[in-house]
Design brief:
60 residues; mainly alpha; 0% strand; globular; THDP-binding; Transketolase_fam
């Protein structure tokens, strides 16, 4: 997933759809402008097991 930078860092998987409360079959998570929370959530999902996760943002 990506914060609000998916078009810039090319992390959106167009063919996989978006994960939401209405449609849980999607693979793209939209975190908004929350880079720190995005990293924490992604690490937690990976540590829990069963999922291959990634996240991306700009390095400043």
């Amino acid at each position: 997933g990506s914060a609000d930078l998916a078009p810039s860092n090319k992390t959106n998987m167009d063919s996989r759809g978006d994960f939401s409360t209405e449609d849980r079959s999607g693979s793209n998570l939209h975190f908004g402008v929350r880079e720190h929370a995005m990293a924490a959530i992604t690490n937690g999902m990976q540590a829990h097991g069963g999922l291959q996760t990634y996240c991306s943002t700009f390095f400043v």
